[in-house]
Every structure is written in structure tokens, then in C-alpha cells.
Specification:
mainly alpha, 434 Repressor (Amino-terminal Domain)
């Protein structure tokens, strides 16, 4: 993602946190499953525990813009 000018993110309004962790988790989980990647592979690429990634996918842990980008990189989709 390239930034020509710094301005607040329209999704998080500059907080770095997204408001709907369950919705984001469901969307990303679907992408992971379409890519046929097990949770353990994504967790290893993100360098976090499997249970933490699972909790994010289920909406039990918050997503940040950085975590979303790391997840998308882990499933080889450009953020």
C-alpha cells in the first residue's frame, strides 16, 4: 500500500483499530480457506500463535490495520 499523503484511514479513522472484528475475521477466514491454507501456516507466517489467529478470525480478539495487512500477506494477497 503506497501513501502519497498521510491522512486518517477511512476504515479506522486514524485509530489503527477496526470496528467490526467478527466481520473482518469472517471475510479473511473465507479468503484463507479459498487459498486452502491451514490456520497453522498463517499463524507461522504472522509469527503469532494459532489460537490468537483463530480468536481474531472468530472476533474474540481485535484486528488492527497492521494485523489485517500481515494476515493478507500471509495468505499472499496484497493489502
Amino acid at each position: 500500500m503506497k501513501h502519497s499523503k498521510l491522512k486518517p484511514c477511512p476504515k479506522c479513522h486514524g485509530t489503527g483499530h477496526v470496528d467490526d472484528p467478527r466481520g473482518i475475521g469472517q471475510e479473511l477466514q473465507e479468503l484463507r480457506k479459498k487459498a486452502r491454507l491451514p490456520l497453522r501456516v498463517v499463524a507461522a507466517k504472522m509469527d503469532i500463535s494459532i489460537s490468537y489467529v483463530s480468536d481474531m478470525e472468530q472476533g474474540r480478539k481485535p484486528w488492527t490495520i497492521a494485523k489485517i495487512e500481515a494476515y493478507r500477506r500471509a495468505i499472499e494477497l496484497d493489502a
